[in-house]
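Internal tracking record. Fields below are filled automatically when a chain is submitted to the structure queue. Please do not edit lines marked as system-generated. If the sequence contains nonstandard residues, flag them in the REMARKS field before resubmitting.
Queue: standard
Priority: normal
Entity type: single polypeptide chain
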Amino acid sequence: MLQHTVTSADGTRLRVDETGDTSARPIIFIHGFSQSRLSWAKQMESDLADDFRLIAYDLRGHGMSDVPAGGYTDSKAWADDLRTVIDELELDGAVPIGWSYGPLVILDYIRHHGEAKLGGFGMIGGVSKLGSDEAMSVLGQEFVALVPGFFSENPEEAKQSLGELINICFAPPPSGQEFAAMLEHSTAVPFFVRQGMFSRSFDNDDLLPRLKKPVLITHGTADRVVKPVAAEYHASAIPNAELHIVEGSGHAPFWDDPSAYNARLRSFCNSLDSAESVKSAA
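SYSTEM-GENERATED OUTPUT FOLLOWS
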């Protein structure tokens, strides 16, 4: 596993892990709220590395990336972070895969920097807007009830809410060791980072019908964080979307059944290569 540090436009240093075939199509894994790049262990340590260049980075304020005082409410800051990873590691044709909060970062990137350097992208249990009644309507009641605790300056109160978030993310639940590691990563994120992330009020739905690149949408039927209706809406709004509703899976299908998700992702990326070959031949 290679380790990189890249520096975003505002000076924030981001931790990036890399494995796989450096000459192959890059896949960039973008974790969710209050987690880390290690969420993607079942992809980074899989046979996807035989055929793709796999990248996972810590969002600003998370994991081993810097924790700047600001930038968490700024669409362009999130966009520039992803742009820095793509540009500094020369990841043209990359396929960013965002989990939960991750698709917001991808859409921030597209809003500010366009789709030209992407081969396509993926959404897992994703949302496309925050801060409105419409945005709240696709969130599960159990998740919404936990939100005040995420913002608490009391470490024990925050830990309790973040632990419950982990509990409702997975079906089946992670092992005791996995849970402990996830909770450690989650509680290491300062409360003001979590506050900033959920203080954003914006709507990226205007971008969806204008997207040109293919999009892989994956959502579990047992998702208790984001309702499956969100994925159905995204699939209807995006012209070139491929929707997979995963029976019995929770908020993290890539973790609940990694073999099935990895196979789906492999097929999606291979279809991009086929489409590009046809376009080149024409």
